[in-house]
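re: ur msg from earlier - yeah i can do the manganese (II) ion complex, just paste it... oh wait u already did. ok heres what im feeding in:
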Amino acid sequence: MKPFEKHEFWFVTGSQHLYGPQVLDEVATHANIIARALDAALPARIVCKGLVTTPDEASSCIKEANYDSRCAGIITWMHTFSPSKMWINGLKILNKPLLHLHTQFNAEIPVNDIDMDFMNSNQSAHGDREHGFIGARLRLPRKIVAGHWQDDSVLEKIGAWIRSAIGCTEGSSLKVARFGDNMREVAVTEGDKVEAQIKLGWAVNTYGVGGFAEQVRAVPEAEVDALYGECREKYDIATDNEESVRYQLRMEAAFKKFFIENGIGAFTTTFEDLWGLEQLPGLASQRLMEAGYGFGGEGDWKTAALLRVMKTMGKGLPGGTTFMEDYTYHLIKGDELVLGAHMLEVCPSIAAGKVRIESMPLGIGGKADPARMVFEGHAGKAVCASLIDMGGRMRLVCADVEAVEPIHAMPKLPVARVMWRLLPDFETGARGWITAGGAHHSVLSYTVTADMLEDYAEMADIEFIHIGAHTDIHSLKRDLLLADIAWKLR
Ligand code: MN
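and the outut:
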C-alpha cells in the first residue's frame, strides 16, 4: 500500500506526427513501460496519460488535470521532438505542480546498430530542451529531474517532489483552528492569514475557548477510561496524579471530536487564554500531534499549519516531525549545541526509547499542573523550518541540523527535549537563522528534507531560504538583499 494511494500524478509524453505512426507506437510503448516502473517505485500512483502530439491534445490534457481532484501534479517527458508552441495554451493554464523528467528510454547508445531511425525516435536530449525553453519562457515554477528513469537517485528525486506536491494539495484543503489569539506582544508568530490562504491554501479561523471548555466537560467518563488504558499500555505513567492525566485525555477526546466535526487538520492554543479549562493542553496536544495533527503553541498558526503539511509530506517515512522551540544553548567552544523543547508540547514521533507521562507545575498560566509526555529525541539528520511573514510575502526559512544523543540526563527537566548541532557551525548557523528572521518556533523534521521544502515553496510561490553546510554569511546577506528587491518588483 502506497502512503498516497488516493493521489495520482499524470505521466504525459510529448511527441508529434512528423515521424509517422510506427514511431508514435514505439513512443507510446516506452511511455507505458516508464510510467509502470515509476508507479511501482514511487509513493503515489503514476498514471500514464498517453501522448500529446498536437496543441489541442496538450490543452485538453492539462484542462483535465486541472479539474481532476485526484491529480496532484503532472510529469512531462519529450520522447521525440515536441514543438513547444503547441504546449503554450495548455501550460499557461496549468494549476498543478509540474515536473519535467529529462530522461530517455535506453540507457546506452546501441553503438553497433544506431541509425537515423533510432536517432529520430530517441531524441529527448533535444526534445526536452525545446520543452525546457517554453517552461523558462512562461516563467513556470517546475522541477527538472535529469537522468535515466531506472536510476535510484532519479526515482528518489521524483519521490521527494511528489511529497512536496502532496504538501500543496494538503494545504489547499487545510483548516486551522485557533483557540485563543497570539501571545501578547509577540511579533514573529503574527502574520497575514489572508495571504497565507492565497498562497498556501490554509484557512485559519478562531473558536471560543469557553465553548470548547464546555465540550471538554461533556466527554463521557468511559471515553476517558479507554484513552487512559491505551496510555498505560503505550507509555510509562510516572505520576500519581491520575486526575491530571485524565483531564488531558478528556481534552484530547474533545479536540478530536471537534476536529472531525469541523474538518480541522491543525490547531493552536495559548496559555494566556484558557478560560474554563483546568490545564494548558500538554499531553493532549502531544497525543494529537502523534496522531498527525498540526500544532502551534501560543497562537502560532503558521507553525501549526506547517507542521500538518510537513507531517503529511513525510507520511510513511521513518524519523518523526514535531513542533519545536530553540530553548537554551550549550555554548562550549567547538561543541555548541541547541537544546530544543517547549513548555509541554513536543510530538513523541521523534522519541528515542520509552515515553514517560509526568505531571508538574507549569510556572506560567496560573492553572493546575498539566500532565505531559517526557522523552529524549533521537539522533540523526533533520531540518528546522520556520514560516515568517515579511510584509508582502511569506518566507520559509530552513536549516539543516544534526540531532545528537543527549549529552546529559537532565533529570530535573520536566519536558521532552532534543539536542542538535547547527550547520555549517554554531556561529554561522545561528547568525544565518537570525539574519533571515527565522522564528524561535519551528517544525523539526527527520523525514522532510530541505529539497522537499524548496520545491514546496516554489510551488506555493513563497520565498525560500536554506541554511546548511554551504552557508556563508556574506553570500546569505547578498541573497536576502537581492531577494528583497526581486520580491518587491513582482
Ligand atoms: Mn513557544
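cool cool. The chain has a mean pLDDT of 96. ping me if u need the other ligands too
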